[in-house]
């Protein structure tokens, strides 16, 4: 009869054979002698790294007393650890024969044999010591001496193969069992399943389980645990959940009663295993999934439907795996689940979520988590404060760039409501937003509140206030602010001087503009293209086109190269002054220098030439630019 187990293993595939030659146990047949019977006392426990148990060697019918290391009434005790140490170097049955005879020289044993329990314990020990050749040699020795082998011994041999990782020998063990007429039991199949899990052959694990059911064997808790391990290896959370639900239903119907002493405790372990499988699957999706949010949410929903409830620690570990911008939805879902469960949550997890929401630009979601820290706990730390402050700074900087001053003021008020103390950096961002939006009164109010909060304005604060006053044409108030700034010892920078010259241009005091430029040079602050752009822009705002063109020439005399903003403002000034041809020439010059002017400049030149009836070939301007965004002034 062909070996069904060997054929089953052959279909599963093999790893390469080990380098050391195998014993003769795979190719010989021996007659079967009388099976050795020993009392069913429990095997002694290991007391250290080495096995230190003793078994009686008095022969059939004798007892071992307490079974844990005592002597028989007429026998001699055997130190199993010593036997295993002696047999470690054995490679053949002859080696084992010689070594065992040396052990039994004192006349112990019957027929030159140790009890079968000793051999099984030795085989287990040899497997743990990675001495698989010696373990096979022991089995060959027993077969040569005509000992009837049993399931327990072959299961120990399979366990040794598993421990050593020489999976190519599995087929030989299974074939030998079949040749000896020994049917595999549930322990045999459990060991095979465990080996296939170790190899990552999950399909073979499920085929072995089908074989168990086909043979009518009763699965044990170890069988189900190994199946769960296979689902974990395969990363199939849905299959694991389905299997757990099926197992739970069988338990409720009483179909598992009698299979294990305490199935209630086992089900706690199975549920934890199921949660672990789901966690690994969701983590894998977060790390490398194409649709991580959808995949994780599906697993969470399946767990809810199956009544599988992860612990808080499981949710928190999954939160740490959320690191991408697209993971914010998962992070928020997990946060809500933790809060709804018992309200307790780790502060480090909250800080991670605040960081994640900020990275995903979900600023209000981050603020909500921070608010919960204030209301529900745990108490926030410095990292929590710094994270939420950094988020507010990002929002304030965006408001500053766009000039959305109302939004900036709202953010500042929100910070104060939540117990956050804005510093000079935050107040200055709001001032600059008001200045960019030309909201003079709002800038003045923010400046006053900043002083009332006990903060000392710096050059950025004064610069923003000066700019707002200049844009509001409150020149006298701006000059008083300048005097106060110098009086309190705040030294002006290039930006402040640039605003000052714009103020004097607005007042029509060109002499003071020259004085300011001289003061800049005396303080080693050289005027730049930004300075002259501000002067030309002020001329445009005050309908002083001729003056703007004059400052353009003075700029050239200082060897300062104009940029796109210079030409854009100059063209607008020349058109205001009724000089479309000159505006046309400035546009052509800018294009010849490789500068890209905005569409507004092109349209201004075209409309002015048509309005004034200039005899200019407008086709020389070229096509209308596609660039829509204008440079920031």
UniProtKB/TrEMBL annotation:
PROSITE patterns the UniProt entry points to: PPR (PS51375)
Source domain of life: Eukaryota
A Pfam entry, by short name: PPR_2
Coiled-coil residue spans: none
Region (Disordered): 1-24
InterPro entries linked to this entry: PPR_rpt, PSII_mRNA-binding_protein, TPR-like_helical_dom_sf
Alphabetical keyword list: Repeat, Transit peptide
PPR repeat spans: 115-149, 150-184, 185-219, 388-422, 423-457, 458-492, 528-562, 563-597
PANTHER family, per the entry: OS12G0283900 PROTEIN (PTHR47940), PROTEIN LOW PHOTOSYNTHETIC EFFICIENCY 1, CHLOROPLASTIC (PTHR47940:SF1)
Protein name as catalogued: Uncharacterized protein
Native organism: Panicum hallii var. hallii
């Amino acid at each position: 009869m062909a070996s069904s187990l060997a054929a089953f293993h052959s279909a599963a595939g093999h790893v390469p054979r080990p380098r050391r030659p195998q014993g003769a146990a795979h190719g010989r047949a021996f007659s079967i002698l009388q099976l050795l019977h020993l009392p069913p006392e429990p095997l002694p426990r290991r007391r250290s790294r080495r096995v230190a148990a003793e078994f009686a060697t008095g022969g059939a019918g004798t007892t071992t007393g307490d079974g844990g290391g005592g002597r028989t009434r007429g026998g001699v005790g055997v130190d199993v650890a010593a036997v295993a140490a002696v047999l470690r170097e054995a490679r053949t049955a002859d080696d084992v024969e010689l070594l065992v005879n040396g052990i039994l020289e004192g006349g112990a044993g019957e027929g030159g044999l140790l009890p079968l329990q000793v051999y099984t314990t030795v085989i287990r020990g040899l497997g743990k010591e990675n001495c698989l050749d010696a373990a096979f040699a022991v089995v060959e020795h027993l077969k040569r001496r005509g000992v009837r082998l049993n399931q327990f011994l072959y299961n120990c041999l399979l366990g040794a193969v598993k421990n050593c990782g020489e999976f190519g020998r599995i087929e030989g063990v299974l074939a030998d069992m079949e040749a000896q007429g020994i049917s595999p039991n549930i322990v045999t199949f459990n060991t095979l399943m465990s080996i296939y899990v170790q190899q990552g052959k999950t399909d073979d694990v499920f085929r072995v389980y089908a074989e168990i059911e086909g043979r009518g064997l009763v699965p044990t808790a170890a069988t189900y645990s190994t199946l769960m391990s296979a689902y974990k290896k395969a990363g199939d959370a849905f299959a694991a959940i389905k299997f757990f639900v099926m197992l739970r239903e069988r338990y409720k119907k009483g179909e598992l009663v009698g299979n294990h002493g305490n199935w209630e405790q086992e089900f706690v372990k199975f549920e934890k295993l199921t949660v672990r499988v789901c966690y690994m699957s969701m983590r894998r999706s977060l790390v490398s999934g194409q649709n991580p949010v959808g995949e994780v949410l599906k697993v969470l929903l399946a767990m809810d439907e199956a009544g599988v409830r992860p612990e808080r620690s499981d949710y928190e570990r999954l939160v740490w795996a959320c690191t991408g911008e697209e993971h914010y939805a998962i992070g928020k879902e997990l946060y809500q689940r933790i809060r709804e469960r018992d309200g307790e949550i780790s502060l480090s997890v909250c800080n991670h979520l605040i960081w994640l929401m900020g990275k995903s630009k979900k600023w209000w979601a981050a603020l909500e988590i921070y608010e919960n820290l204030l209301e529900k706990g745990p108490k926030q730390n410095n990292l929590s404060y710094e994270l939420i402050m950094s988020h507010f700074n990002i929002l304030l900087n965006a408001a500053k760039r766009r000039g959305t001053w109302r939004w900036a003021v709202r953010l500042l008020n929100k910070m104060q409501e939540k117990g956050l103390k804005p510093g000079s950096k935050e107040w200055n961002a709001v001032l600059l937003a008001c200045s960019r939006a030309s909201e003079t009164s709002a800038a003045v109010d923010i400046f006053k509140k900043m002083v009332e909060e006990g903060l000392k304005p710096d050059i950025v604060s004064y610069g923003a206030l000066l700019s707002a006053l200049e844009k509001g044409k409150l020149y006298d108030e701006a000059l008083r602010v300048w005097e106060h700034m110098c009086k309190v010892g705040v030294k002006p920078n290039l930006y402040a001087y640039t605003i000052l010259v714009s103020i004097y241009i607005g007042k029509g005091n060109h002499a003071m503009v020259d004085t300011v430029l001289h003061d800049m040079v005396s303080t080693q602050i050289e005027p730049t293209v930004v300075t002259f752009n501000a002067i030309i822009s002020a001329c445009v705002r005050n309908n002083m086109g001729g003056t703007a063109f004059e400052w353009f020439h003075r700029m050239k005399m200082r060897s300062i190269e104009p940029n796109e903003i210079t030409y854009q403002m100059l063209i607008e000034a020349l058109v205001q002054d009724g000089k479309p041809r000159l505006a046309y020439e400035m546009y052509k010059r800018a294009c010849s220098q490789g500068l890209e002017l905005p569409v507004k400049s092109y349209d201004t030149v075209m409309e002015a030439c048509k309005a004034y009836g200039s005899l200019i070939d407008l086709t020389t301007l070229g096509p209308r630019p596609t660039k829509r965004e204008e440079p920031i002034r």
